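Problem 12. The chain below contains 69 residues. Write out its predicted structure in token notation.
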Amino acid sequence: MSGFDWPGLMRIGLKSLGLRPHEFWALTPAEFAVMLGRDGGGAGVLDRSRLEDLARAFPDLPVAREEGE
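Solution.
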């Protein structure tokens, strides 16, 4: 036995995430972990407050236009 709870993982993938069987089996373990929110990235959900923080930290800059445009 591999130590994986395949029936449990399949239930999560197929029922909770709505994946089709071929989509489930095509995922790498890392991709599946990201979909479950268990990738260890620690960044969490990008909410409005975090988006505004990022916009202040990395503002859009005007694009320099060449003459004749």
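Discussion. Residues 6-57 form one domain. Students who got a different answer should revisit the alignment rule from Section 12.3.
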